[in-house]
Amino acid sequence: MNSKVTNRIALSLIVLCAGIMAAILLALLGYILVNGVTSISWRFLTSESSTFLAGGGIKDQLWNSFYVLFLTMLLTVPIGVCGGIYLAEYAKPGKLTSFIRSCVEVLASLPSIVVGMFGMLLFVNYFQFRYSVLSGALALTVFNLPVIVRVTEDGFRALSRHQKEGGLALGMTHWHTIKKILLPAAFPSILTGVILSAGRVFGESAALLFTAGLSTPNLDFANWNPASPNSPLNMFRSAETLSVHIWAVNTNGIIPDVQTVANGSAAVLVICVLLFNLLARGVGKWIHQKLSGKA
C-alpha cells in the first residue's frame, strides 16, 4: 500500500478517535449543564440543605468540599513534592528505589473506594477521628499523594541536564541547585499538576463515603472557633461534601425536589472542576510566558 495512503488512513483514525472523545465529553457536560444550570441560584448556593422539605440548598456541602480540599492539598503538596524531588534527584538505582516506585504505582492504581475503606479502618476506627473532615482529608491524602509525587518527578526530569550541571559548576551545593535553579524551572509544570489534582480531589466521593460521613451539621458561619461543634473550621465534625450529597440525594433522598437538587448540585460540581482545569492551563501558560520573558 502507498505510504501516503497509509498516512492518510492513520491520520483519519486518529482524528476520528479524538472527535469521538470530544463528542462524548461535550455530550456528558452538555447534559449535566443543560439540566442543572437552571436550578442554580444565589439562594441555592447560600441556603442549607433540607432532609424533608423542598427548596434546600448546598451551602454546607459546598463549604465542606473546599475545606476538605484545602486540608488535603495542605498535607499532600509538601510531602508529594519532597518525594518527587527525592526520586528525581537523590534516589540511586537499586532495590530501595524500585520498591518506592512500586509503592507509588500501586497507590496510584488503587480504586478510591479501597482507599476509603482503608481510611475508615485506620483514621475513623483505629485513631478514632470518627467520620470527620480530618478523616476525609487524610484518606484523600493517601489517594492524591502518588499523583503529586509523579508530577514533581516528571517536572524535574523534563528539565535540561545543563541547568543542573551549570549550578554545580558554579560551586553550588546539590540542594542549593535544586532550590535556586531546578525547582523554579519545574514550578510551572508542578503547579499545573497540583491544580489538576485538586480538581480530581474536589470531585471525589467514594473515598469520602467511608471517612467524611453522609451528614453535616448546620454550620454557623458567624462562629469560626475550631472547637465549636457547628464551626465551619471544626475538623472533627462530619462533613458531607458536594459529590457525596449528589449520591445521597439520588439514592436516599425523600425531598419533593430530588431531581432539581441533584441536577443543580451536579452542575455546580462540574463547573468547579472545569474551573480547576481552566485555571491550571491559564496559570501554567502565564508562568511559562513570564519565565520565557525573563530568559
TrEMBL record:
Pfam families: BPD_transp_1 (PF00528). Keywords: Cell membrane, Membrane, Transmembrane, Transmembrane helix, Transport. The chain crosses the membrane at residues 9-34, 66-87, 99-123, 129-151, 181-202, 261-280. It is a multi-pass membrane protein. It comes from the Bacteria. Residues 62-280 form the ABC transmembrane type-1 domain. The keyword Nucleotide-binding does not apply. CDD domains: TM_PBP2. It is found in: Cell membrane. NCBIfam families: 3a0107s02c. Belongs to the binding-protein-dependent transport system permease family. CysTW subfamily. PANTHER family: ABC TRANSPORTER PERMEASE PROTEIN YQGI-RELATED, PHOSPHATE TRANSPORT SYSTEM PERMEASE PROTEIN PSTA-RELATED. This is Phosphate transport system permease protein PstA. It comes from Sporolactobacillus spathodeae.
